[in-house]
User: Fold this.
Amino acid sequence: MELILLGAPGSGKGTQGEKLAAHFSIPKLSTGDALRAAKKAGTPLGLKAGPLMDAGDLVPDELVYGIVEERLSLPDAHTGFILDGFPRNTAQAAELDRMLVRLGERAIDYAVHLHVPDEDIVKRLLARAHKEGRADDTETVIRHRIDVYNAETSPLLKFYGAQGKLLTVPGVGGLEEIFQRVLAALK
Ligand code: AMP
Assistant:
């Protein structure tokens, strides 16, 4: 099972991705988590990515390709994987397709889109920033992240829709309720 999770920041990709990974016993890769770890560790990658992440912008595509290909090459990803936060634009989606061919003639099965209205997203992200003490996560940065999603990432809905791979699931309600919707869509 090769899955991509699509949805605005705060739409629940991380949480639902964890549940899916446990359910199907396959790994989940979050490029955002990997970049945050690199930033925290102060690696060259983290130093380059940090300011862009803080501003709510995407980092250059080339910075994430290595992270993804390396992780998907590991043996535990051979039976499947869940991608959270990658691809983020159509160039990354095309590169992912090429990567999967290099990794053994594989392809994405489905792109699961967790759909949450913009205003709910702002509320969720503000609550999260407050809870995690992310004072730099201001409403301006949050709104910018949503704009970046709408401009750069949402075209992927068409990209996967045209391939018959898009499954759109309402991402509002209880975590378990949403998870059951995702499982039902995948059946
Ligand atoms: P996320 O946790 O997925 O929202 O990612 C946090 C931040 O990491 C994003 O706002 C981007 O700056 C960066 N990032 C994560 N994944 C990607 C990606 N696939 N392409 C470019 N930037 C990314």
